[in-house]
Description:
The structure is a homodimer. The first copy, chain A, is of the alpha+beta class. The first copy, chain A, contains six helices and five strands. Chain A folds into two domains: 1-7 and 22-112, Orthogonal Bundle (Arc Repressor Mutant, subunit A), CATH 1.10.10.10; 114-171, Ferric-uptake regulator, C-terminal dimerisarion domain (Dna Ligase, domain 1, 2-Layer Sandwich). In chain A, helix 2 (44-54) packs across helix 4 (80-92). The longest helix of chain A has 13 residues, at 80-92. Chain A is flat. The A-B interface holds A 10-12, 14, 100, 102-104, 121, 123-125, 130, 132, 134, 136-137, 140-141, 144-145, 148-164, 167, 170 and B 10-12, 14, 100, 102-104, 121, 123-125, 130, 132, 134, 136-137, 140-141, 144-145, 148-164, 167, 170.
Amino acid sequence: MANPTNFFNRSETTMEYDPASPELNQEPELLKTVLNKEGFRFTSQRQKILDLFQSAALGHHLNAEEIHQQLLERGEKISFSTIYRALHVMVRLGLLQELELAEGRKYYELNTPFMDQHHHLVCVHCGNVEEFEDATMTQVGSSESTSRGFSLLNCQFTVYGICPSCQSLLG
Amino acid sequence: MANPTNFFNRSETTMEYDPASPELNQEPELLKTVLNKEGFRFTSQRQKILDLFQSAALGHHLNAEEIHQQLLERGEKISFSTIYRALHVMVRLGLLQELELAEGRKYYELNTPFMDQHHHLVCVHCGNVEEFEDATMTQVGSSESTSRGFSLLNCQFTVYGICPSCQSLLG
DNA sequence: ATGGATAGCGAAAATGATTTTCAATAGTCC
DNA sequence: GGACTATTGAAAATCATTTTCGCTATCCAT
Ligand SMILES: [Mn+2]
Ligand SMILES: [Mn+2]
Ligand SMILES: [Zn+2]
Ligand SMILES: [Zn+2]
């Protein structure tokens, strides 16, 4: 394996989004290919975790706890250590995206091609998350990073506020 | 005090940025006023912590650990519990801004009027953070939130990438 | 100013998400 | 099939942050 020591230390590697291989997550057996290409092994656990995200609406902004729970509901018991390891690997491979939606935990969702990147509007009271797309966002991100010589990995625009229903609850 | 139970649970209260009281952090004794207005008490610890941020370039994206350390260097020993409590209160009062620059810890900086809000470009390899301003960002944030009936609290645009010097190190 | 009520302090213990350790297992490649 | 070693699960370890609790200091009313 390429970098065994700090490998699991989040995306500290120069593994950028590869526009040449966009829909990998759709196909059933491609996971093995993607993993092996980078020296990882294909395992049933990793496939099941990815499956969870691919069954659309179900998955979407899942944290480790929710993944563990939803897998249990599907009759699959996968340890937390395995879940965390799989998430890191898939983020590294560009299959998943890690999100900081505030609160002390990380959320994950299927990664999308850079230009289709969406952003988030979070209610700090109830945790409700809405998504939106906006091309100017990604433009600003990429122009800002190239003008400083940064190689862009990804942008996150997160808007915090209070959703309509929480507003009425709080007066 | 208004909401004793979940009070310290981050900014879950409807305490929006007040454009009428912008430069509070500049003045020396205003902290007491701001605290008392909301039922908090003025303490030397809170003043010293705020002082740290106000001595500009020194402070800027400080986490609890760094605050504790820099206070020690100034000969002030303030416990972590007090530091964390003070940070929460000051965020709640709009004096400080809490940032999620990735990595499992939170950073703080002096809050600025909404329209002057700046954003961050983070090197995921060395942690170097650069700031930039962009009006479109805040526009998109506010239009997006009003169009959904959210009451806006704040926006964070964070761009992740690899800085020039880390790029050369990594080949 | 004085005094009572109680918010805030520090030290230590608790929490909770994530990471690591380690022996057993299972992909990959020959 | 067999060697090599990445991956797994369970349990222990980390680490930032939060809570608890007895004591102190601030605030407000007298
Ligand atoms: Mn999303
Ligand atoms: Mn900043
Ligand atoms: Zn809400
Ligand atoms: Zn760097």
